[in-house]
Amino acid sequence: MDIIYNYLDYRSFLHDFYESRKKCDTFFSYRYMAFKLNMDHSLLVKILSGKRHIADSAIENFTKFCKLKNREALYFETLVNFEKAKTKEQSRIYFEKLLALKDYRSSTIPKEFFKYFQ
Hints:
Layout: H1 10-24, H2 30-36, H3 41-48, H4 59-65, H5 70-84, H6 88-101, H7 111-117
């Protein structure tokens, strides 16, 4: 499964997480996932189908279930808030937070390439 930083939609991440677990564990199902998340399975299906959002109080359950820690958990929470944003300004703020949480690494360009990029 891809790392969470490759996603800009928490539902896509959850779908991929589900498919990945389903391949490894034949018993894994929406009912099992909902049970572990302490929610009704129909609500989980509604969330994954885009009809409902994850409640703020349930975000921590999802991060624990998906074994997201620290920065990854914060990224997931920000993804949920980004999807729930009601104004363009809120969307922009959460999008900037997502970019800041991504693990960008910089590198030095060798001198022979520097002239080319000038």
